Amino acid sequence: DWSSDVCSSDLGEPIMSSEYTKNKSTVVEQYKRAMPGFFKQKNAQEELSKKVLDQMIDDLLLKQKAKKMKIKVYARELDKGVNEIKKRFSLSAQGEIISPEMAEKAFKDELAKENLTAKGFREKIRGQILVRKLIDQSIRPTVKLPTEDEIRTFFKKINYIVKGDTSGLKNMRSEERRVGKECRSRLSPYH
């Protein structure tokens, strides 16, 4: 009975618990490698679980929107995306170029580790390209990029916060405050 594997189904398409579990374990491994101290934080596991499910819901909604807008992913775009990923496997862990056969084996081993077939991998890449095209066509044109001065000012504020000076938080917009607090909790040994 597949319905016992459904995590959420009120989006028009189900989000499967097995897919959620697989995505979560991949993200946990990435966090363990990139930010080992993250899991020492209170509620880190719950926060990560929520982020993974939120991301899956966002991805699904974006894919649905792209399909509604009749955005297409062409075979050459998909092949290029797959080849870009495969290219990452052409170097050994020590950064040395390896043979095409070894690179292909490393790629297939990674697919097996992720419990993905070649077809499933292509579909995953297709979805990512679809979302990127949607963002490029409908979201990016509406976003005003910050100026150099705005970037410098924000960086200075974040730098103060990371060093422990939170007095600048009261003058920040709510999103800036959230980012500042998140940076401080992740980067400062004194939080």
> How many distinct beta strands?
2
- Total count of helical runs of at least 4 residues: 7
Helix content: 55-70%
Question: What global shape is seen?
Answer: globular
Termini separation comes to 46 Å
The gyration radius over C-alpha positions equals 20 Å
Q: How do the helices and strands follow one another from N- to C-terminus? A: EEHHHHHHH
The computed structural class is mainly alpha
Which regions have little confidence, pLDDT < 50, spanning 5+ residues?
none
Share in β-strands: under 5%
User: Multimeric state of these chains?
Assistant: single chain
- How is the largest sheet built, in terms of strand order? 1-2
Largest sheet: 2 strands, antiparallel
Whole-number mean pLDDT: 83
Q: Helices, strands, pairings?
A:
Blueprint: E1 6-8, E2 15-16, H1 17-34, H2 44-68, H3 75-87, H4 100-113, H5 118-139, H6 148-162, H7 174-187
Antiparallel strand pairs: 1-2
Helix pairs in contact: 1-2, 2-5, 3-5, 6-7
